[in-house]
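Researcher: Structure for this, please.
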Amino acid sequence: MIAYRQNYAALQFTPKPRKKAIRRDPRPRLDTPKGAAAPIPSFLLERIAAAIKIGSVREADFGRMVNRDPNLVGDLYAGRKVRSGTLSRIIETLDRIEGGQGNG
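Model: Predicted structure, token format:
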């Protein structure tokens, strides 16, 4: 028969406090989102489709450039609403892709 002994060291063990994780995100995040979300205008959807069609960028890459979200373009086509900050980042990214020539 095997006799098990109590591990008294485990009973007295207290873990060290963990350091707070370093935020590596260069964009500050809001504690509470500000601004109401609204559907994206159709002319911007057309600009996104044109940028994808000419092959300068893929849908997932565009979403990652704008919002770090590879599903952004598909969600926009499905009716996703965006806040003003996201809308401005979409416009800035489109301008950068199109060489600074805005269509809208």
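Researcher: Any notable elements?
Model: The mean pLDDT is 82. The longest strand covers residues 38-39.
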